[in-house]
Amino acid sequence: MLELHSRCLHRPALLFARTPNFVQSRRNLLTLAIETSCDDTSVAILQKSNHAAPQTQLHFHQKITANNSAHGGIHPIVSLESHQENIAALVAKALHVLPNTGSSKPDFISVTRGPGMRSSLTTGLDTAKGLAVAWRIPLVGVNHMQAHALTPRLVSALSGSSDNAAPAFPFLSLLVSGGHTLLVHSRGLTDHAILATTTDIAIGDCIDKIARLVLRPEVLKEGGEMVYGRHLERFAFPNGSADYNYIAPTTRAEEIARKTTRWGWALVPPLAETRSGSKSKAMEFTFSGLGSAVKRICEGKENMQDEERRDLARESMRLAFEHLASRVGWALRDLEGKGIGVGTLVVSGGVASNAFLRTV
C-alpha cells in the first residue's frame, strides 16, 4: 500500500533573518499556485481566512493547454514549449490581482512536484523556486494525485455553503484520467493510501486508443478537439442515457463471462483469465489487453460498418468501467470488514466526465 504526501521542497525564507508572515499569524494564508505536470500551464492565487467564519477565496485561476492536435496525443516537447511560452505571462496576470487580496506578495508558493512529465514539471518548479527566492518565502511541493483527491474539498470550501468542507474523511477517490488510474483511501488532509493502481496503461489512454481505432477518421476530425474519449462516448450513445440499456452483473461470474456478440467477436474482461488464476481478484487495474483486443478486431475487419463499430465502442467501455467498479466494490467490502466506514466515493479526472461510467 502506497502513501501520498506533500512536502516542503525548498525553504528560501530560512536563508534570511526574518520570520515568514504565515508563521507569525495563521489568520490568513495566501498562496500562488503553479501546475505544469502535463500539457496544461495553470496558475492560481488562493486565500484562506481562519476567522470566526472561515472563508476560502480563489482570486485568480487561468490555464493554457498546449496544442497537441497534430500529434494525436500529448507530445512532451510541444507541451514543454507551451509551458515555457506561457508560464511567465500567467504569473504576471496573477500578480495583478494581489492588491485585491490586501497583500503585496503571497505567504508561500505551491507547485506540483509530481507525478507528471519531467520536462513539464521542471518548468513549473524552476519558476516557483525563482519566485520563492526573490520574495523570501517558503515553497511547498504538492503531490499531483494528492491534490486530485482533495479537490472536492477545495470546491466545497470555495462554495462557502458550510464551515466544514465536504466530503468528510474518510472517503474513497477513483482518479481516472489519461495518465492515471488510482483508487485512493483518504483518511485526512495528509493521510492517503493507494488501494489499487494500473499495472500498465491508464484507462483514459486506453479509451483514447480505442476511439482512434473504432471511429472513422472523418468522425475524429469533425470533433475538432483532441478529446477522443468524448467523441467515442458520443458515437456509442448518440441519444445519451436512452441508449444505455445497461444491466449490472450481480456476480463475479457474470462480470467476467465472455459475451459473444452478433458479429461473432467477444471481448475478454480485464483480469478475467490468468495462467494461475491468482490475479482474477487482484486489487489492481489493467487495460492494455482490452485495447489490444479491440485493435485485433478492427484490423481483421477493414470494412466494418458503423453499427458494428458502435457495438464495439459500447462493449469496450462497458468492460473498462465494470473493471473499475469491481475493484471499488472489493475495496468497500474490505474496509467494511475492518470496521472502517466510508460514506463517499469521489470520481475525478477526465474520464469522470463520461456519463456511462457514472451509470456503471
UniProtKB/TrEMBL annotation:
Q: Which GO terms describe its cellular component?
A: mitochondrion
InterPro entries from the xrefs? ATPase_NBD, Gcp-like_dom, KAE1/TsaD, Peptidase_M22_CS
Kindly indicate whether the keyword Acyltransferase belongs to this entry.
yes
Q: What class of enzyme is it?
A: transferase
Q: Which PROSITE patterns match?
A: GLYCOPROTEASE
Q: What is its EC number?
A: 2.3.1.234
Tell me a Gene Ontology molecular-function term this record carries.
tRNA N(6)-L-threonylcarbamoyladenine synthase activity
Task: Name all Gcp-like domain ranges.
Answer: 68-359
| Alphabetic keyword roster | Acyltransferase, Metal-binding, Transferase, tRNA processing
Q: Give me any GO biological process, just one.
A: mitochondrial tRNA threonylcarbamoyladenosine modification
Q: Which reaction does it catalyse?
A: L-threonylcarbamoyladenylate + adenosine(37) in tRNA = N(6)-L-threonylcarbamoyladenosine(37) in tRNA + AMP + H(+)
Query: What name has this protein been given in UniProt?
Result: N(6)-L-threonylcarbamoyladenine synthase
Query: Origin organism of this chain?
Result: Imshaugia aleurites
